Amino acid sequence: MRSLIARSDNFPLVAPFRISRGVKTAADVVTVEIVGEGHVGRGEGVPYPRYGETIESALAAIESVRGAIEAGAGRAEINALMPPSAARNAVDCALWDLEARLAGKSVTALIGRAPVGPTPTALTVSLDTPEAMGAAALRLADVPLVKVKVDRSDPAAQIRAVRAAAPKPKLIVDPNESWTIAEVRNLQSLLVDLRVDLLEQPLPAAEDAALEGFRSAVPIAADESAHVAGDLDALMQKYQVINIKLDKTGGLTAALELADAARAKGMGLMTGCMICSSLSIAPALIIAADAAFTDLDGPVWLANDRAGGVTCTNGILTPASPALWGGA
C-alpha cells in the first residue's frame, strides 16, 4: 500500500522576475511525495495562472486521484485520469522517481538513456528598462546562451541593449505572447542584424494562425501554443521549434512522447521551465539531452533551492543529486 503527501512550497527569489504578463517575487510550487515499500518518489509542479491553474486547484486535482495513487496506479493510469497540468506533472515525476528507486536503477536507465551530464542552459534577462537589461546582460557576456524577455514598449531597444552587452552568446528573444504579426514582420531585419537564434512565442496562442505560411528569418518556437503531442499537426505550419515544458505536458511521460513526435515531424526541440526548484529541473534535463535549446535556469532565481539541487556555473548546469530525484 502506498501513501501520498501533497503540499505547497514557497521559494523566495533573489530578484524580481519580470515578463510581459507580470512580475514574480517567489516560486510557488506543488510538491508530491509517494511512499511505497520503504522508498519515496518525489515530483514538483508549478501551477501557472496563464493556464487557469492555482496552488489550490492543483492540490485539489491531486487529491482527486489519491485513491488511485495509493491503490498502486501507474503512470499510464494517472495520465488517463488527469489532464495535462502542473498537478499531473508532480504526480507523474513522483511515480518515475519511485519506480526507479524500487528497481534500484536511475530513471535514465529505465528508459534506456545515457545518464544526464552537465548541460548548457539559457540564463534569462528579465524585462526592465533597456539600460537595466543591458547591465544584467553584461554579467552574462561569457555564457553560452542568453534569453531576453521583451514586450511591446520598445523591443528593439531591449534586444539591442542585451546584444551590445553580451555580443558572444546565442540569443533567444521571448515576447511571451505580447507582439502582433505586424511587429513580428517589422522586426525581422533587427532579429537578423542582432544575430537572434530563436524567437519564442511572439503572438498570443489564440492568434497564432497569423503565422501560417509566414517565412521568418529566424526560427520561431511554440511555447504557450504547444502542450502535448496532439497539438503538433496544428503547429507545423506556424512554428519550427517546440518548447517542451513538463508543467504543460503534464509530466515526463507525455514530454517524452511529445519529443519523439516532434522529431518525427522534423521539428526542432527546446526544453523550458517555469520559475521552480531543482526538483522540476531534474526530469526536464532528460528532455534537454535531445534539445537544440535548453532554458532550465528556474532554480538560479531562487534565494534557496532544495538540498542536493542543480548548480549553475557560467551557464552550465550540473545535474541534481540522485537523492533529490532520479534514483540510483
The H-level CATH homologous superfamily of the largest domain, spelled out, is: Enolase-like C-terminal domain
Q: List the secondary-structure elements in sequence, H or E.
A: EEEHHHHHEEHEHEHHEEHEHHEHEEE
Strand count, sense and barrel status of the largest sheet are: 8 strands, parallel
Inertia-based shape: globular
Which structural class matches the secondary elements?
Answer: alpha/beta
Task: Give the count of helical stretches.
Answer: 13
Beta-strand residue fraction: 15-25%
Cα-atom radius of gyration? 19 Å
Query: How many separate domains?
Result: 2
For the largest sheet, list the strands in their spatial order: 5-6-7-8-9-10-11-12
Any idea of the CATH class of the largest domain?
Alpha Beta
- Secondary-structure arrangement, i.e. CATH architecture of the largest domain: Alpha-Beta Barrel
Low-confidence stretches: none
CATH topology of the largest domain: TIM Barrel
Q: How helical, in percent, are the residues?
A: 25-40%
Arithmetic mean pLDDT: 97
Give the termini separation: 23 Å
**Count of individual beta strands:** 14
